[in-house]
Write a structure and sequence with these properties.
The complex is a heterodimer of chains A (297) and B (231). Chain A is mainly α. Chain A contains 11 helices and 2 strands. A two-stranded antiparallel sheet of chain A has the order 1-2. Chain A starts with a helix and ends in an 11-residue tail after the last helix. In chain B, the strands form 2 sheets. Chain B has a 6-stranded mixed beta sheet with strand order 6-7-8-3-9-10, sandwiched between helices. Chain B has a 4-stranded antiparallel beta sheet with strand order 2-1-4-5, with helices on one face. Chain B has one domain (2-229): Rossmann fold, CATH 3.40.50. Chain B has helices at residues 40-47, 70-76, 93-99, 114-118, 120-124, 135-147, 165-182, 193-199, 222-229; strands spanning 2-11, 14-24, 29-33, 53-60, 63-64, 78-81, 153-157, 185-189, 202-207, 210-216. The two termini of chain B are 33 Å apart. The chains are: A mainly alpha (297), B alpha/beta (231). The interface between A and B is medium-sized, with 20 and 26 residues.
Amino acid sequence: MLDILFIGLSLGSILLLVALGLAITYGAMGVINMAHGEMVMIGAYVAVLSGIWLRASLLLAIPLAFIVTALLGLLIERVVVRRLYGRLLDTLLATWGIAILLQQAVRLEFGLSFLGIHVEGLGAGLQNVAVPSYLQGTFRLASADINAYRTFIIVITAVLTLATWFILYRTAAGMQVRAIIRNPKMAAACGIDVKRINAMTFAFGSGLAGVAGVMMSGFKTVFPDMGTTMVVDGFMVVVTGGVGSLFGTILSSGLLGEINALVAIGTNDILARAVVFGVVILVILVKPSGLFSFKGR
Amino acid sequence: MLSLKDVHSYYGRSHILHGVTLNIPAGKVTSILGRNGTGKTTLLKTLMALTDRMTGEMHLLGKDIGSSPTHMRARAGIAYVPQGREIIPDFTIRENILMGTFARTDRKREIPALVPELFPYLMANLDRPGGVLSGGQQQQLAIARALAADPKVLLLDEPNEGIQPSIVEEIEKIIVQLNREIGMTIVLVEQNVAFARHAAHQFAMLEKGRVVASGAIDALSDALVHRHMAV
């Protein structure tokens, strides 16, 4: 039983890393970023490529993926999203287009495949990432076999969640983000550069998704479409937890991860997904603003 | 100090201000008067670049700020206390005050020395959420937040609206004190003519988005009030 709960916790951890970024960008900026799942994909490919070309371990891929996806997120914000503030449906469509663009860029090896050049690690095929030996295998804890790699995922997620909490609640930059979530006009009237803070927030959220991608690459195959389901899962976590609530996002990703793991062990993965969808629909019906939404606005 | 020349302001396609020309002198209280819906609040929002669009000239201390975005106007020295106060309910009182400091150019994040002097109640409750305060206390908090920016001009939008009478007097006293003792330049949107006469040095009367009368507060005759403010 403990090992199943543990699997659920690790699934929830990945969900959390994906959803944190979405929760902040959707909460602060009112932008539905459909390309967020592609940040997971790019993060996973950073792990693949750095393994092949730099002989770097998975550990080194984590900061690398964060930097790459954060910069990419910054670029997307500057070039596209910034021009679409206050136009929710347009952001959805535009970022979906970006998502497709990024998928095809990886599949076509940034166009090099047309010239007959093949870059190892890119392309339409499946990729695998080697997990370092010290993260393989299991260890025993209270008569249950605990997977070392899943423990690693949970620890990294806990560290990043704590870091996010610290930034949001203990720094001046975080206070500006929270002020923008609550009241963007008044935040601007208090001298907060809403555009600049939004761009930084977007980049940070993208970076977290990139790290989630590195984690996923350790136990799932990596392929260009892998981000598509992630963005759906991420938004389910956000609407269940309540938009703009860090606490709600943490709890609902844990909840959905556990439900997924428990049902999947008893039956199968497909049914587990159906149950998760069912729970999310139920939550939205009963509490449309999510389990933990702040009052006001 | 703060001057407007032929300013027009819009929400979407609605044209709200029609060619407002106004001069706000330093160290004085200027009261903006008029009935509901004549553009008083819009005038303050236009000063903060919070309407959808504006045209015309706007200068603060000789510097052109007509095309500056909201946060740059705040950093240039305009602090805004909006109607309805708009404090953040789940921020602590301390956080609400410190929010104002993002407009400071010296990047100091501290509660200004004036706050304990003017609002002892807020200082004694810094870690409580802003949402638990009464309307009058929230108004004080909104003024404290504006002062935290160390502003050159303070914009107050009906600071006594929806506040229990016992606190109205206190807030009026603070506004007068800020101007007479510290020399703060204040733009005061007000419906209460008696208080405007008491606090302001000059006035501007708005009607249908235009300035229909302005001048020294002594020129605010009963006839003028009757013509433009009686309902």
